[in-house]
């Protein structure tokens, strides 16, 4: 009996860690079980991401979205049923849920919308100028001064 460890559950709840995700996904192609409710994490360009959560039967008041210390948390639960409703068959899940997504540095939530039973949360990577890579010019030549730059 062979056992294979999958790191897919770790990356399913992370956004912006693409290099690690790509590295481990290529090494481990085994998909683990899914979490409730079903959801997708989509990449729409270098800096644009979207989380889409199946929220069948829920309205805006049933959902709560928060970001705290780099963790995006989406919670939902159905309101109390109206008096007089009797279900002959209830196939739409009504259980409460809480999903958490660890966000990479500089990932910001730019909005959320609920349409056709899908909750879409748009994310954008906004890197400040101070954190962007900088190209450093190289001085040189045969007669380069060997005095440390800080002393010049």
TrEMBL record:
Residues 30-141 form the SHSP domain. Keywords: Stress response. It comes from the Bacteria. Pfam families: HSP20. CDD domains: ACD_IbpA-B_like. Belongs to the small heat shock protein (HSP20) family. This is Hsp20 family protein.
